[in-house]
Amino acid sequence: DAGITQSPRYKITETGRQVTLMCHQTWSHSYMFWYRQDLGHGLRLIYYSAAADITDKGEVPDGYVVSRSKTENFPLTLESATRSQTSVYFCASRTGDRGSTGELFFGEGSRLTVL
Amino acid sequence: EDQVTQSPEALRLQEGESSSLNCSYTVSGLRGLFWYRQDPGKGPEFLFTLYSAGEEKEKERLKATLTKKESFLHITAPKPEDSATYLCATFSGSARQLTFGSGTQLTVLP
Fold first, then answer.
1. Does A28 contact B at CB distance below 8 Å?
2. Cβ B87–A43 below 8 Å, yes or no?
3. A29-54: per-residue pLDDT in tens?
């Protein structure tokens, strides 16, 4: 099915473990994003990518690593998870058109709990 | 740094009771203001784009308006299915990507 899918939808891990959240989109959108959503903070941008092999930091990148070897995939890795990284993570994508700057398509989210 | 503030944080309405949600912003060189709807357990869904003061957009019971300092999302005769969290976001000349507000959680009671 066309769209943007995230996996896993739910993950419980322990402090210090490495975790990778996967994001796959079938639209061939050039831009992809990772956000975290926490009560009282709204959506905060972690990293984004304008194209394959091009990534850039957002507002809260510390503790996270991203890669984009293929246009359709944009995994987010927590190299050593901390409790403060407990959150709901959303992947999003959009076209490269200037007129579509604010029209993001979001996945269903990945709820991560770090114990 | 761009700032986006939404109010109220939560709003409870009776079915049919019209109201407005507010999104005030402080940005340098606004290039667009965007409204999203988010249902529980789901990702946000794009609703509207507004580019300049005075612009209005409508979709069913929703109408978004924009001034130089804020945007309103007017909900006319809401129904229970309009219950959701509504997010606004800005894109400016100084920020490289969207800045989101914290959202207004709307509950419409039957």
1. no
2. yes
3. 999 999 999 987 889 999 999 999 99
